[in-house]
Design a protein that fits this description.
The complex is a heterotrimer of chains A (about 650), B (about 270) and C (about 220). Chain A is an alpha+beta fold and about 650 residues long. Chain A has 17 helices and 19 strands. Among the domains of chain A are: about 140 residues, Succinate dehydrogenase/fumarate reductase flavoprotein, catalytic domain (Flavocytochrome C3, Chain A, domain 1, Alpha-Beta Complex); about 140 residues, Fumarate reductase/succinate dehydrogenase flavoprotein-like, C-terminal domain (Methane Monooxygenase Hydroxylase, Chain G, domain 1, Up-down Bundle). Chain A is globular and about 75 Å long. Chain C has a two-stranded antiparallel sheet with strand order 1-2. The chains are: A alpha+beta (about 650), B alpha+beta (about 270), C mainly alpha (about 220). Chains in contact: A-B, B-C. Chain C: This is Succinate dehydrogenase.
Chain lengths: ~650, ~270, ~220
C-alpha cells in the first residue's frame, strides 16, 4: 500500500488556498442528495455535523452519551490558540505554525499544521458569532493569555472552562440543524462497525444502548469524530465513556492507524488515592507558574503534605529548577512528567502511594500574599481540596502525571480521509496535526478547525466524484457486519466468567502505564506484549458480563470497549517497540543524551508510522509516510 | 471556602448502607434494594463507591446498578442521583465530585433517580433527559452559518455583560434544578440559555422568538411552573442564579406582548 | 390559539396572572386596612359605619369591588390549575426522601392560600353578607340612617374563637405575603440588582406590618371591653 498524503504542491502559505480552489464542488441543489454519517459530537463532530447540514447535506449524527453536549471536549479547561495577534506582540500564522511544529517535536506534517494555524483565526470569529462568552477586557474586546510556555499571548479562554463553552457553541449550531431537520440525532447510540461497499465506507452498524437493538445506517461518507484513546491506560483524564471502538473497528476494516504510541502525559494531575480510583483529574498547568516542584533529597516513604513543612530547605530537591535552570518549573509537559516519574522511581516520591511529588506554593504565598494566590488559583485549590481532602493553602499540593491526550489516531491524508475511501477522521481521532507532542490550547483548535473549516471543503471533492445513488441497508455487506457484531456480543455474554470488566481494564491500564507510558524500553515493551496477549486470552475466556443484549447493559458496553482497548494496547506496544528514538511524548530509554535528555533520531524516524491490520491475531504491517521538512529547519529541543 | 474547614481524617474503613432504587426498565415497577457496603474509603468519590458496589454485585452474579456518568470531573453534566433527599447529595456540587468523606461511618444513604414526568426512568438510576435537548433545539442558538461572520473584535461587549452571560452559560444541563424543584420546573435551565443569549448582542435579533419557542417547548415537555422557591438555585452545582429566571420571565412577557406572530410548536 | 390565550395558557403566563392578581390583592389589603383602622376611632363606630356605607354604595367603588371579587376568583382558580399541573409534573413516582433546601413558605403557598380562603368565607359570611343582606340594625348620624356594621364587628370580636381565627388567619396571610410579594416581582421579571434590595425590604416589611395591623384591631377591640 502506498500512502498518499495528498499534500498540495506550492509554497506553504498558499497550499490550502490553492487546494480549496482545486477541490471539486457539489452543486448546491445536489447536496441534499448526499447523506453523511457523523460519529461523535464533540468539537470536531458537532462542528462538522452542523456545518455540513448548513451546506445542505443530510446528516445523521451519533453519540453514546445521553446528549451531544456531554462529549468530552466539554472538559477542556485552558483555552484555544488563534493567530489573531490582537495583542500586538508579534504573533502570526507563521509563528503559530512554527510553535506547533516545534512543540510536536518535528513529527507533524508542515502542510497540515500551517492550515491549522491559518484557520485558527476563523474559529474565534465563528465562536464569538455563536455567542460563546470568551473572556474580555474592560474595553469590550477579547482578552488573551499566554499558555503552555508560549512566548506570545494568543490563547482565547472562557475562565477555566473553554472547552465547555466552545462545545456548547458547536452544540447550539448542531441543535439548529436538528430543528431544521437537516441533522437526525441519535443519542445513547454506539457505533460498532463501519460497512464497506465496493471498498468505500458506505455505512455503520450501531447499537441502541437503551434497547440493545442493532441498526444499520447507510450514507455516502462516514466521519469518525470519536476522540482519543487515553482510556487504554484505564486511569486517564478522559471521561469514563471515552473509547477507541469506532476507530478500532474502522482500523480493522482497513483504515491505517497512525503513530499509536504517541501519548501525552500531563504533569499536574491529582495523584491516585487508592485501588478504587476510577479516573484522574487534571489541574491547569498554569499552577506551575507559581508552584515549585520538589521531593525530599533522601527518600521518606509516606511523607504527607502536612509533614512537608518540617523538611528543612536544605533537605529538599527542587529537581526541575536544579536540572533545567533556565526553564525551571516551566519545562514542557513531557519533561516535567518524565522527571516526576524518575524521582518516584528512585523511591523519593511522596504520599501514601509514593507516586507523587510536591507542588509547593509556600514561596508564592509569602511573596504575593494568600489573597493574590487565591485570586489566581482559587478554583483549582478548591477542586484539589474537594478531591483530596487536603488544604493546599497549608501544605503543598501533591501531583503526579496522568495520561491526557493521544496524538496518534487514524491515519488521514490532507483531506482528512483515512485509507478507506469515504471514511474520514477528525479531531483527536486522527493523528495529523500534533506530531509527537501537543501544545497546550491546541486540541480545541484542531477539533474545530477540522469540523468547521476543513471537512466542509474536502468532503465535497470526494462526494462530487461518487454516485449519488444511496445504498440499501438490505445489502449483504450490512447484514454481514451486523451478524459479526451480534456474534461478538453473544460471545461476550456467554463467557460468564469470574472477572469483572473493570478488573481486566485496570490490569491492561497498569501494563500500559508501566511499560508503554512515560518512558519505554525494548525489554519492557516485549514483556508488555506478552502480558497483553495473556490478558486478551483471559478476557475472552473469563470476563463476567451479566444480563442480556436487549436492555440498557452498561457492563456489556464497557466490555466491548475494553476488548478493543486490549487489541489497541498491543498495537501501541508494537509501535513503541519500532520507534527506538525518543521524541515528544515518546521517551525511549535507549535513546537519550549523556545527561539523560530525550534524543530524537531524524535520520531513521522522520516518518509517520501507519499500521495496517492484517487479520485477527496476525502481526500488523508498518507503512511509513516520510515527513519532509521543506520550510522548517529541525533542531533538538533544549530547556537547560 | 467552607469545605476546607470541614476536612476529616482519611480512613478506608467506613461501613455504609445503601438504599438504591432498582427498576428494570420504564415499563416495570421499581423499588428500593438495600446493600451494605464495607471498607469504604473517605477518599472515594460517590461514584467510585458505586463502582465498588457494582463489581461486588457482578461477582455475586447480580446485575450492576445502572447510573449515568461520564467525565467525572464535574463538567459534562451526565451524572445525576438524588442522594439523601438532595440532587447530587449534600454538597452543592455534582455527584461525581462528591466524596465519601461527606458521610459518616454507619450512615444509610438513600439513592433515587431524578423524578420528573419529563425525565422518565430508563433503568435503575438512569433517566431520559432528552427533553432538555429538545428545548435547546427550539431556539437555544444564534442562527448563523459557519463562515462569513464578522471579525471577533468587531462586536465589543462590555466585560460586565460578558461576565454575566458567562455566569448563565456555565449550565451543564444535568437537571438538578428539575430534580430539586417541588414542581419539577425547568425554568432555571431554560433561563440560563435565554439569559446568555439575551445579554449578548449576538443573541439580540432572535431574542423574542427564542424566549417564546423555548418556553413553549418547556411546557410541551411537561415540566412544572416556577413558584420561585429557589430550590433550583440552592442545588445547582454551577450556582446559576434566580436572576436568570426573572430575566426569562421578562423576556417571555415582553416577547408575548410585542413579538410578531411566530409559528410556535408545543404549548399545553 | 391567538397570542393572548397562548400567553395565558403557558406556565409563565399563568404565573404572570398569579402575580398581577396577587399584587392587586396586595393593594386591596391596603385599602381594606385603611377602612378597618376606622374601627379604632373612639366614636362608637361612626367613622367606620360611614366608611362601610361609602364602600357599598359608591358606584365606582362597587365596580372596583366586583373586579376585586373576580380577581380573587382568578387568583384561586389559577392557583388550583397551576398546583394540579405542578403535581403532575413530578411524574408517576415521588421521592422517598426529600431534604428541602427552600423556604417553607415558598413551598406551602397552596396551604397558606387555602387557610386564607377558609378565613375569607367566614369573614364574608360574618360581615360582608350581613352588610349586604343581613337584618342589620341601623344608626343615625346627622339625620342620615346608616347600617350599624360596627356593632356586628364589635360583637364578633367579643368571641375568643373568632379573634383567634382572625389572628391565625393573619399569620397565614403574613407567611403568604412573605413569599408572595417578592415572588410577584420575580415572576413579572422586575428584577434588577439596584432595586432587588428595596423590593425585598418592602416585601418583608409589608408581610409583617399589614397582617399585624389587621390582627391588632380585633385584639384591641377584644381587650378594650
Amino acid at each position: 500500500m502506498k500512502l498518499d498524503s495528498k499534500i498540495p504542491e506550492g509554497p506553504l502559505a498558499e497550499k490550502w488556498t490553492k487546494h480549496k480552489f482545486n477541490l471539486k464542488l457539489v452543486n448546491p441543489a445536489n447536496k441534499r442528495k448526499y447523506d453523511v454519517i457523523v460519529v461523535g459530537t464533540g468539537l470536531a463532530g458537532a462542528s462538522a455535523a452542523a456545518s455540513l447540514a448548513e451546506l445542505g447535506y443530510n446528516v445523521k449524527a451519533f453519540c453514546f452519551q445521553d446528549s451531544p453536549r456531554r462529549a468530552h471536549s466539554i472538559a477542556a479547561q485552558g483555552g484555544i490558540n488563534a493567530a489573531k495577534n490582537y495583542q500586538n506582540d508579534g504573533d502570526s500564522v507563521y509563528r503559530l505554525f512554527y510553535d506547533t511544529i516545534k512543540g510536536g517535536d518535528y513529527r507533524a506534517r508542515e502542510s497540515n499544521v500551517h492550515r491549522l494555524a491559518e484557520v485558527s483565526v476563523n474559529i474565534i470569529d465563528q465562536c464569538v458569532a455563536q455567542g460563546v462568552p470568551f473572556a474580555r477586557e474592560y474595553g469590550g474586546l477579547l482578552a488573551n493569555r499566554s499558555f503552555g510556555g508560549a512566548q506570545v499571548s494568543r490563547t482565547f479562554y472562557a475562565r477555566g472552562q473553554t472547552g465547555q463553552q466552545l462545545l456548547l457553541g458547536a452544540y447550539s449550531a448542531l441543535n439548529r440543524q436538528i430543528a431544521n431537520g437537516k441533522v437526525k440525532m441519535y443519542t445513547r447510540t454506539e457505533m460498532l462497525d463501519v460497512v464497506l461497499v465496493d471498498g468505500k465506507a458506505r455505512g455503520i452498524i450501531t447499537r441502541d444502548l437503551v434497547t440493545g437493538k442493532l441498526e444499520s445506517h447507510s450514507g455516502h461518507a462516514v466521519l469518525l469524530c470519536t476522540g482519543g484513546y487515553g482510556n487504554v491506560f484505564f486511569l486517564s483524564t478522559n471521561a469514563k465513556g471515552s473509547n477507541v471502538t469506532a476507530s478500532w473497528r474502522a482500523h480493522k476494516k482497513g483504515a491505517l492507524f497512525g503513530n499509536p504510541c504517541y501519548t501525552q502525559i500531563h504533569p499536574t494531575c491529582i495523584p491516585v488515592s487508592g485501588d478504587h480510583q476510577s479516573k484522574l483529574t487534571l489541574m491547569s498547568e498554569s499552577l506551575r507558574n507559581d508552584g515549585r516542584v520538589w521531593v525530599p533529597k533522601v527518600a521518606k516513604p509516606g511523607l504527607t503534605a502536612k509533614e512537608a513543612k518540617n523538611i528543612p530547605e536544605a533537605d529538599r530537591d527542587y529537581f526541575l529548577e536544579r536540572k533545567y535552570p533556565s526553564f525551571g518549573n516551566l519545562v514542557p509537559r513531557d519533561v516535567a512528567s518524565r522527571n516526576a516519574k524518575m524521582m518516584c522511581d528512585e523511591g523519593r516520591g511522596v504520599g501514601k502511594t509514593g507516586l507523587a511529588v510536591f507542588l509547593d506554593f509556600t514561596d508564592a504565598i509569602k511573596r504575593d500574599g494568600k489573597k493574590a494566590v487565591e485570586a489566581k488559583y482559587g478554583n483549582l485549590f478548591d477542586m484539589y481540596a474537594q478531591i483530596t481532602g487536603d488544604n493546599p493553602y497549608e501544605g503543598p499540593m501533591m501531583i503526579y502525571p496522568a495520561v491526557h491526550y493521544t496524538m496518534g489516531g487514524l491515519w488521514v491524508d490532507y483531506n482528512l480521509m483515512t485509507t478507506v475511501p469515504g471514511l474520514y477522521a477528525l479531531g483527536e481521532a486522527n493523528f495529523s496535526d500534533h506530531g509527537a507532542n501537543r501544545l497546550g490550547a491546541s486540541a480545541l483548535m484542531q477539533g474545530l478547525a477540522d469540523g468547521y473549516f476543513v471537512i466542509p471543503y474536502t468532503i465535497g471533492d470526494y462526494l462530487a466524484g461518487i454516485s449519488q445513488e444511496k445504498v440499501s441497508t438490505d445489502r449483504p455487506e450490512f447484514k454481514e457486519a451486523m451478524d459479526k457484531v451480534n456474534n461478538t456480543i453473544n460471545t461476550i455474554l456467554n463467557i460468564k466468567g469470574k472477572r469483572t470488566v473493570d478488573e481486566l481494564h485496570r490490569e491492561l491500564g497498569l501494563i500500559m502505564w508501566n511499560y508503554c507510558g512515560m518512558s519505554r524500553t525494548d525489554a519492557g515493551l516485549r514483556e508488555a506484549k506478552g502480558k497483553i496477549q495473556q490478558l486478551k486470552k483471559e478476557f475472552w475466556s473469563n470476563v463476567a458480563v451479566l444480563g442480556s443484549n436487549n436492555e440498557l447493559n452498561q457492563e456489556l458496553e464497557k466490555a466491548m470497549r475494553v476488548a478493543d482497548f486490549i487489541e489497541l494496547g498491543e498495537l501501541m506496544v508494537d509501535d513503541a517497540l519500532n520507534r527506538t528514538e525518543s521524541c515528544g511524548g515518546h521517551f525511549r530509554e535507549e535513546s537519550q543524551t549523556p545527561d539523560g535528555e530525550a534524543l530524537r533520531n531524524d535520520d531513521d524516524f522522520s516518518y509517520v508510522a501507519a499500521w495496517e491490520f492484517k487479520g485477527e491475531n496476525q502481526p500488523e504491517v508498518l507503512h511509513k509516510e516520510e515527513l519532509n521538512y521543506e520550510f522548517i529547519k529541525r533542531t533538538q529541543r533544549s530547556y537547560k | 471556602m467552607n469545605l476546607l474547614n470541614g476536612l476529616k481524617e482519611a480512613t478506608n474503613n467506613m461501613k455504609i448502607t445503601l438504599k438504591v432504587w432498582r427498576q428494570k426498565n420504564n415499563a416495570t415497577k421499581g423499588g428500593f434494594k438495600v446493600y451494605p457496603i464495607e471498607h469504604v474509603s473517605t477518599d472515594m468519590s460517590f461514584l467510585e463507591m458505586l463502582d465498588v458496589l457494582n463489581n461486588d454485585l457482578v461477582r455475586k452474579g447480580e446485575d450492576a446498578v445502572a447510573f449515568d456518568h461520564d467525565c467525572r470531573e464535574g463538567i459534562c453534566g451526565m451524572c445525576s442521583l438524588y442522594i439523601n433527599g438532595k440532587p447530587h447529595g449534600p454538597q452543592q456540587t455534582t455527584t461525581c465530585q462528591l466524596h465519601m468523606r461527606s458521610f459518616k461511618d454507619g450512615d444509610t444513604i438513600t439513592v433515587e433517580p431524578w423524578r420528573a414526568k419529563a425525565f422518565p426512568v430508563i433503568r435503575d438510576l438512569v433517566v431520559d433527559r432528552t427533553a432538555f435537548d429538545r428545548i435547546q433545539q427550539a431556539g437555544g442558538y444564534v442562527s448563523i452559518n459557519t463562515g462569513g461572520v464578522p471579525d471577533a473584535n468587531e462586536i465589543p461587549i462590555p466585560k460586565k455583560i460578558a461576565d454575566e452571560a458567562f455566569d448563565a452559560a456555565v449550565c451543564i444541563g444535568c437537571g438538578a434544578c428539575v430534580a430539586a424543584c417541588k414542581n419539577a420546573s425547568a425554568m432555571l435551565f431554560v433561563s440560563a440559555k435565554v439569559s446568555q443569549l439575551a445579554l449578548l448582542p449576538q443573541g439580540k435579533p432572535e431574542r423574542k422568538e427564542r424566549a417564546e419557542k423555548m418556553v413553549a417547548q418547556m411546557d410541551a415537555e411537561g415540566f412544572g411552573a416556577c413558584t420561585n422557591t429557589g430550590a433550583c438555585e440552592a442545588e445547582c452545582p454551577k450556582g446559576i442564579s434566580l436572576t436568570n429566571i426573572a430575566r426569562l420571565n421578562r423576556e417571555y412577557l415582553s416577547a408575548s406582548l410585542t413579538s410578531y406572530e411566530v409559528e410556535v410548536k408545543g404549548g399545553d | 390559539m391567538n397570542w393572548f390565550t397562548k400567553l395565558l395558557s403557558s406556565t409563565l403566563g399563568r404565573k404572570v396572572l398569579m402575580a398581577l392578581t396577587g399584587l392587586f390583592l396586595i393593594l386591596f389589603l391596603v385599602v381594606h386596612l385603611i377602612g378597618n383602622l376606622q374601627l379604632l376611632h373612639s366614636d362608637q363606630g361612626q367613622a367606620f359605619n360611614i366608611y362601610a356605607r361609602f364602600m357599598t354604595t359608591n358606584p365606582l367603588i362597587k365596580t372596583v369591588s366586583y373586579v376585586n371579587y373576580a380577581i380573587i376568583l382568578v387568583h384561586i382558580v389559577w392557583a388550583l390549575l397551576l398546583t394540579i399541573h405542578n403535581r403532575k409534573s413530578r411524574g408517576p413516582e415521588g421521592y422517598a426522601v426529600t431534604n428541602g433546601s427552600s423556604a417553607w413558605t415558598s413551598r406551602n403557598m397552596g396551604i397558606l392560600g387555602t387557610l386564607i380562603l377558609i378565613f375569607l368565607v367566614i369573614h364574608l359570611k360574618g360581615f360582608w353578607a350581613e352588610m349586604h343582606w343581613g337584618g342589620i340594625s341601623t344608626v343615625t348620624y346627622d339625620n342620615e340612617v346608616y347600617k350599624d356594621l360596627y356593632t356586628v364587628v364589635d360583637k364578633a370580636y367579643t368571641m375568643e374563637w373568632y379573634v383567634a381565627i382572625y389572628v391565625v388567619s393573619m399569620i397565614a396571610l403574613a407567611f403568604h405575603l412573605w413569599h408572595g410579594f417578592i415572588s410577584a416581582f420575580q415572576t413579572l421579571g422586575l428584577n434588577h440588582s439596584k432595586y432587588n434590595g428595596l423590593i425585598r425590604f418592602v416585601g418583608r416589611a409589608f408581610a409583617i406590618i399589614v397582617p399585624a395591623l389587621f390582627a391588632l384591631i380585633p385584639i384591641w377591640m377584644y381587650l378594650d371591653k
